[in-house]
Amino acid sequence: MQLKNCPVCGKLFTCISRNLCPECIAREEETLGNIQSYIDEHKNATIPEISEGTGIPVERIVSLLQNGRLVTTRANQLLTCERCGAPISYGRFCAGCSTALKSSFQKAIPQRDLPGEREVSGERGVSGKNKTETRARMYVSDIYRKTSR
Asked: Are 122 and 104 contained in the same domain?
């Protein structure tokens, strides 16, 4: 546990799991409850209508949806994928675009052996493959040797 300042109200608090103080967490939960009850009462409401009905800014509602704190389950989704425009219930990208982006990032960033990893011969993991041992320390000379090859 460590002491932090709340990014919303500035109070000092003991950080256990979230980056907000207990009072701001309670306010956020109340905000989520208000939005959810409005959505339950008005099934086809848009984000601006929800904002007008609850008094919560549009940016805050969109942020809660994108962060996955507020999820819609209806057919007329409130958010669209930033890449292809498909309706989504939370986040920024649909499942297809998320998978495509992940694979393109993995292709763009070459997988290379880290100087602190080596294969342990003779020991087998759960999958039957050799285990990889990671040393706790990495020295600058190891990094230099690896990059100068």
From this structure: no
